Amino acid sequence: MENIIEVSNLRKYYKTVKAVDDISFSIAAGKVFALLGPNGAGKTTTVEILEGLRRADSGRITYFGKEITKVNFELKEKIGVQLQNTVFFESLTVKETLKGFSGLYEKKFDIDILVKKLELEEKLNSKIKTLSGGQKQRLAIAVALVNDPDIVFLDEPTTGLDPQARRMLWDFINELKSSGKTIILTTHYMEEAEYLSDFVNIVDHGKVIACGTVEQLIDSIGMKSIIRFHSNKKFDSYFKDENLKIIEDTALSSEKKIYEIQTDNVETTLSNIFETTRKNSLSISEIAIRQPNLEDVFLKLTGRTLRD
Amino acid sequence: MKIKSLLSIFLKEDFRNFIVIFWTFVFPLIFFLFFTSLFGNIGNGSENSSDMEFRAGIYFEKPPTGLAKEISQGLVTGLGDKNSGGPFENIYVSSFDEGIQLIKDKKLEIFIVFPENLDMLNLKVVLSSVPAPVVKSYYRSDSGSDFARKIFKSVLDSVNVEFYKRISSAEYTLEVQELNKKASDTFSYKDYLFPSVLLMSILTVSIFNTPLSLAYSIEKGITKKIFTTPIRSGHFLTVVILENLILLGISILLIYIEGKLMGVSPKAFSAKYIAYLFMNVITLISVGLLMLSVFRKLSAVNVAANILYQLMMFLGGLFFDVSHTPMIIRWFVYINPVSYMAQGLRNIINGMPLGFLNYFVPLLWIGACIIIFSLNFKKVMNYE
Amino acid sequence: MNNRFLNLVKFFFLETFKNKSEVFYTMFFPVIFLLLFGFIFGLGDTQHQEENFEYGLVFSSGYLSDTNQSSESAYDTVKAFFDPNKLDIYADNESLKNAVLSSKVDAGIIVDETSKVKVLYNSDPANMQKITWIKFAGENAIKRFLYGAKKDYLSLSSENIGTGRVESNQMDFLLTGIIAISILSGGMFSVINTFGRYKKLGVIKKFMVTPIKSNEFVIASSFNKILLNFFSIVIIIILGKVIYHMNYSFDWPMLIIVCLSSTLGMMAFGILLMVLFKELEVAQSAASILMTVMMFFAGIYFPINIIPGYIRWVSYILPIKYVADLLRHVAGVENMNITAFWLINIIMAASGIILLSLTSRQLMKDQARN
After folding, report:
1. pTM for the complete prediction?
2. What Cα–Cα distance (Å) separates residue C215 from each residue in B167, C270, C292, C364?
3. Residue A134 counted as domain residue
């Protein structure tokens, strides 16, 4: 598959802070590429360099196979950008804002279709200042698409949205992908990256610490199934029992007696846990079984969670 | 097309903003009307100021007789005669102490005491060696009282001259000529204030509205979004200038309509006046852009705009003469382009030519501002 | 309550004094105005109470031959009649006209041979108020010369009646007026700008969910504005003494009372504007207009007496006149009836407290709702 964007050895330093520290990646056309990392990792700085809002200190960027030194106006015709905090003129209506920005491009997408897809029809003639947070976010995405771009940058598109709104936007992003657009997504939500992306770069402190598909990343840490439970008494000492077939145990909270254990044999481990509780007059509750996720990947790589 | 789209966004935002509408369009009109009504009578050169009111306490230490009586009564009557422009309301007091108390209680602006020996005047007209009776005036330090004192002093001076005129064989006629005015012209405060209001409106948009709204847009990230689109910085700048010009064009038009209705001199509608005004607009827009390129943060622009606006306005001779201020501030008057613009516009109304400095200083400012803005342009316009 | 309130005061104290913008506008902006208007209106020139003018004179050759005197002797004679104003002799009419037009002289006088005297003025309206005095002084002086009026028939002696504790002059009146404007604008704008800022930051909403009462919030945040305003006044007073050598002598305890009552009164005004106009920008505009009107109707920059009668009444309903009077009293510049002094203070303070109490709850509700 052809790479639409290629980034090599990108660096951006601010005095003592290495905001982007030797980042390299490639983005295939028609895919969703996610930059996942905690706040302050360097995701936004990286994409803003690609959007032409910042200049890299060093490194190489290629768009459509051509190396560029600057994001020129021809390139800007082909990209759409939803910024992390997009602010529009408060007194303008949704329609006026969309039309206004549409007028800045040669190529135009039908605004009515956009408005319908992003459920902004009811608010078309409302002023920006009357919109809710979710509506403003949807508008920001709509504005990013007025020129029917080939490449769409979405910087934290669902931050601050309720689960329903978030889900709705995810579906929309998938639709965009289906229409052949290349999407560069920055997010600190693990679920979002897992649900949407074809390829993920995990970024921390300006560096890419892991990259690959979601499956590749999860497999790379070698984690198996995870059983989580609450106990009424401390369970730590029982983990030494080899019969439990535990690969790794973690006391998420010794005080509250919440535990997670990895196993490659869920059935055996569970039944042995029940046996142990029965023998020792213990009681466990809130049992949950899950598969490893990107949060676990990040935790494994950095010792911190994405939310830290 | 791109410029048109962006311009329409900016203008729509401006026209829905109460602050912009009020201070750009409405306030100058109110200001012009209000201050012309307020000060219109002052500029007529004083004597016809029937609207001025000063309370003069009058006290005769001893009732005068003869010529002294005639003169003093005539003087007092003249002071209080509204029909002939006398600015005083005469209040006769029964004692010296009463008059002093009234002055202290601010019930009088001036207390005039005709002395006991006023009758010496009768003798003095015959024997010049007789000492002149001394009329005493008592006043306070506030501006109203001081004003009244000055008026009375001038009037008494005229009375003294009148004495000599009557006994002199010589005949002199005094002809007053106001230079740079034709005989048919009458002084008009409206003509004086008209360029001030125009320049004040231009200052408001160029020094306040535009830099502040731009700085706000940059800080809030609105311009950041615009710069992700294929809008060139030059286009953006063009839109900013066009936005300015349109707002100012409308404001100036409204002021002109008001001026026409109020009877401002036809010279203010001449091509020369309008052309010079246009140059002033460009100058002040440049100053606004310069300010933005130097103080990029919104809070700094706010402070700078406030200070510069007040300084340019009050040290530009818009509302009162500042040409004789102490050097500690007069240097600003000399470098302030508004000083030359205001003088230039008034010169055109008065039929006087524009001096070299009326062109040179504003043009110098345009040049300097463009150079500095160009050097800082990328920093201003680039997000980073 | 006390602890909570004190903590709130401390909190706002930090917020106020760490806010550079707020400190600048409340404390230093009035100082800039003081310096600007002080120098413009001649605060630095307190010794010269009378404004002296400069005249130019031309004696026509006809006049000199008629009166059989040389230009120099005629000049020496006429000069005395113009004292203490300055008189320059010019060789010809043209150079005198140019001098008048270029404002080298305030007026020009041409003594003609045909018993005609021409007095030339530059009709530049920048001098419009001064022209009155220029005309009086110049015309009288030349008439005196022509008619040989060396001595007065009626002399005039003027005496300044001191109305205060100190011997004051017009400049003391002007500066106390500037201080009054500063107190009023500081009081009114501080609340409008502060509450506007708090609203934008969402701070008010946050406080509304704590056990703080509305009036506690308003009082605590306002207290610091009063303090800031007072510091500004102190700076202006000190600068007035140092730069302009003003004669005033402030009664500091009384000054604190006046500052407090006036600031309270104007703060209430500011809050009233915010309740009336809801939108911050509109309230700010209304406050700006009010201040502009007050400045011109205060009788500070020019006497109220010259304002046309049909609008002069406005001066008497605006607080600026009364606050200026209070300040002059505490500065020793002009005495005031003690009853009137306390009455005005009480009215300002009481209306301030009442309005603040009544409107604070409504204001907080409005701000939190929006």
Report:
1. 0.79
2. 78, 15, 30, 9
3. yes
